[in-house]
């Protein structure tokens, strides 16, 4: 029988179509085919994603740096991780990243636009550098990157009240302004000599750009240092007319060893001195009235002090007349009561062979005769509106602080110094203070400054006409001022908090920051009340002797508490070490000082300078080098007449005449060092 079936648009189909039934046995095959097809599509999709991820991973690599959404790592040539930085101000949207040549850039975080890039720069075969910039496009958003410091030992940054070498981090500190401060009055501040530069034992260095509104914090639980840029709740200011959009920019460089990478960074990023101070400053000690007399100084005491220097047969580069020779702070005339005939005093000192320098500062107290005229002429730093002078409190009262961005203030201050020089024959000046903590939190200056520490720089420039013998205690980008820089006052104690043990770590830190003409403060410390070890108004006798011995191996020596305040034995020890300084130390230091003008290399060097792969050398804070060939190991513990000494590999001769020809570093345990001795070794 035939069956009629509906056809297409043209009519009917009359073919015979037999009816069929699907067998149940074929259904699994159909499903298997469907599943196989799905799996094939999934595999192809996964492969495509894998290829894309490989391309993205390749995109986010540049030389030895790997970038991810949360930060980046840098490896050395051997493949080991030497540097890690985490982003704390946002997560990068990696889909917004692109790479063109050696420039890797991104345009977004997960929630906002930004400008971010890392550029690879290879300035020389042995150095690999990375320029990093994170720029916010919305005002008042801080930028913060956190550097992990566990990969190595770190050095640099700033002097501090408790100074260690290498840097020792404890506690948690939210990022705070990285500006110069007086660490004697506030021991939690950053010190008066500071640069935004750090160096590590694994041959990695980081330099924050000077334009960054830079804040530094740390966390010893996370083992991180936080580098932050911000304008809100900060003394930093954006450029006039510009929105306060924060930018954190810096350069990370990796080299072959810690010494060579530091040499590269110094030559590339630091100012260098353009002259060497007066040679006599290196050869003969400075004698200051401060620790001996404090502010209770007068004409008779100055003349007696000078007479005793000659009586006890000591040399003198110059005599330093410290605070307080004027009747009020901010005046430049001698107090007639304390100095009834200053001109006669200077003439007598000159005839006895003494040059004299004077203590000065940037403050004019409100009770000074100069205060009103300085206000009328607009010579002071002003409050934020610029309408009124800002009154500031310092350790000697309340007054105005001169605005050294103002040419009129600079000229006025300079004229006062020139007048002192012409009237009395003053040889130079001790420039005290200059740190930003003596500025108001918010202030204005004649020439706007974005970075408060630029005020420090401007103040240090006032020393340039006197830099043969001048002394500064603060510095920021001031290496080319070419005078002696002094750490803040030391207490007459043994420990690391502004004591004898802090001296070597502080000098090494200042050296790494590019300041090579270093005056390590007064022998024995400042003998301040309640901050002096011992049972008398004088520093402890043993402490004084050990301090004296160490100072003899510094670029310059400075007395105030005189050796004759103790006994004849101390006087003889002082004569011995001032002679040793003049005959052995000063000639070598002066040779190195000449090299500083070209290289910027330290005069006082850490042991790792000649032992770059030596883990022990990275941690030694009680020995140092003068150049590469004179190693010094002072006794820094009370009651000790021996010490452990670490000798790097080489050929050494001790001060006792012993010869050490060693291919490996050598530990000398309990090496005997009498009270009148300091251990030192000369490269043969």
TrEMBL record:
GO terms for biological process: carbohydrate metabolic process; skeletal muscle fiber development. Its main location: endoplasmic reticulum. The chain crosses the membrane at residues 29-52. It comes from the Eukaryota. Residues 600-682 form the Glycosyl hydrolase family 31 C-terminal domain. InterPro entries: Alpha-glycosidase_related, GH, Glyco_hydro_31_C, Glyco_hydro_31_TIM, Glyco_hydro_b. GO terms for cellular component: endoplasmic reticulum membrane; nuclear membrane. Keywords: Endoplasmic reticulum, Glycoprotein, Glycosidase, Hydrolase, Membrane, Nucleus, Signal-anchor, Transmembrane, Transmembrane helix. It is a single-pass type II membrane protein. GO terms for molecular function: hydrolase activity, hydrolyzing O-glycosyl compounds. Residues 296-438, 500-581 form the Glycoside hydrolase family 31 TIM barrel domain. It is found in: Endoplasmic reticulum membrane; Nucleus membrane. CDD domains: GH31_NET37 (cd06592). Interacts with IGF2; this interaction is required for IGF2 secretion. Belongs to the glycosyl hydrolase 31 family. Putative glycosidase. Promotes myogenesis by activating AKT signaling through the maturation and secretion of IGF2. PANTHER family: GLYCOSIDASE FAMILY 31, MYOGENESIS-REGULATING GLYCOSIDASE. This is Myogenesis-regulating glycosidase. It comes from Gasterosteus aculeatus aculeatus (three-spined stickleback).
């Amino acid at each position: 029988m035939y069956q009629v079936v509906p056809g297409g648009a043209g009519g009917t189909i009359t073919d015979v179509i037999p009816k069929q039934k699907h067998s149940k046995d074929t259904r699994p095959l159909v499903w298997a085919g469907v599943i196989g097809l799905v799996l094939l599509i999934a595999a192809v999709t996964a492969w495509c994603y894998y290829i894309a991820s490989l391309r993205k991973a390749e995109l986010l690599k540049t030389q030895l740096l790997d970038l991810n959404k949360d930060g980046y790592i840098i490896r050395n040539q051997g493949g080991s991780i030497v540097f890690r930085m985490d982003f704390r101000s946002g997560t990068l949207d990696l889909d917004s990243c692109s790479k063109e040549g050696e420039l890797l850039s991104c345009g977004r975080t997960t929630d906002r636009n930004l400008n971010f890039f890392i550029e690879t720069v290879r300035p020389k075969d042995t150095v690999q550098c990375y320029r990093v910039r994170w720029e916010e496009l919305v005002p008042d958003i801080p930028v913060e990157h956190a550097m992990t410091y566990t990969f190595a030992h770190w050095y640099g940054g700033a002097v501090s009240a408790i100074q260690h070498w290498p840097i020792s981090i404890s506690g948690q500190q939210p990022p705070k302004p990285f500006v110069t401060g007086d660490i004697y009055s506030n021991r939690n501040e950053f010190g008066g000599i500071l640069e935004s530069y750090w160096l590590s034992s694994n041959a990695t260095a980081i330099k924050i750009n000077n334009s960054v509104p830079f804040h530094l914090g740390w966390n010893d639980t996370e083992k991180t240092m936080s580098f932050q840029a911000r304008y809100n709740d900060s003394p930093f200011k954006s450029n006039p007319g510009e929105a306060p959009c924060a930018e954190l920019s810096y350069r990370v460089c990796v080299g072959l060893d810690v010494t060579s990478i530091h040499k590269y960074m110094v030559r590339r990023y630091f100012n260098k001195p353009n002259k060497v101070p007066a040679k006599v400053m290196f050869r003969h000690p400075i004698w200051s009235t401060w620790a001996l007399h404090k502010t209770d100084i007068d004409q008779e005491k100055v003349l007696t002090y000078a007479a005793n220097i000659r009586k006890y047969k000591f040399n003198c580069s110059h005599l330093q007349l410290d605070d307080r020779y004027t009747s009020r702070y901010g005046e430049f005339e001698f107090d007639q009561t304390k100095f009834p005939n200053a001109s006669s005093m200077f003439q007598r000192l000159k005839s006895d062979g003494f040059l004299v320098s004077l203590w000065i500062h940037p403050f004019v107290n409100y009770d000074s005769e100069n205060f009103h005229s300085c206000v009328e002429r607009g010579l002071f730093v002003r409050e934020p509106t610029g309408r009124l002078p800002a009154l500031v409190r310092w350790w000697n009262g309340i007054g105005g602080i001169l605005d050294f961005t103002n040419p009129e203030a600079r000229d006025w201050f300079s004229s006062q110094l020139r007048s002192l020089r012409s009237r009395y024959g003053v040889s130079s000046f001790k420039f005290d203070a200059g740190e930003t903590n003596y500025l108001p939190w918010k202030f204005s200056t004649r020439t706007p400054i974005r970075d408060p520490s630029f005020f420090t720089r401007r103040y240090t420039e006032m020393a340039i006409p006197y830099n043969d013998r001048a002394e500064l205690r603060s510095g920021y980008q001031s290496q080319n001022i070419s005078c002696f820089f002094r750490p803040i006052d030391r207490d007459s104690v043994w420990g690391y908090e502004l004591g004898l043990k802090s001296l070597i770590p502080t000098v090494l830190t200042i050296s790494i920051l590019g300041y090579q003409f270093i005056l390590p403060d007064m022998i024995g410390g400042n003998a301040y009340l309640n901050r002096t070890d011992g049972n008398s108004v004088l520093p402890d006798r043993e402490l004084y002797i050990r301090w004296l011995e160490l100072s003899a191996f510094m670029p310059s020596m400075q007395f105030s508490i005189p050796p004759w305040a103790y006994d004849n034995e101390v006087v003889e020890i002082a004569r011995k070490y001032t002679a040793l300084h003049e005959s052995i130390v000063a000639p070598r230091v002066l040779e190195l000082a000449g090299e500083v003008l070209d290289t910027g290399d330290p005069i006082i060097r850490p042991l790792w300078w000649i032992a770059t792969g030596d883990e022990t050398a990275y941690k030694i804070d009680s020995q140092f080098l003068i150049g590469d060939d004179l190693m010094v190991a002072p006794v820094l513990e009370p009651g000790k007449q021996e010490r452990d000494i670490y000798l790097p590999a080489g050929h050494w001769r001790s001060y006792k005449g012993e010869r050490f020809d060693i291919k490996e570093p050598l530990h000398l345990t309990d090496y005997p060092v009498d009270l009148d001795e300091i251990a030192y070794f000369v490269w043969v």
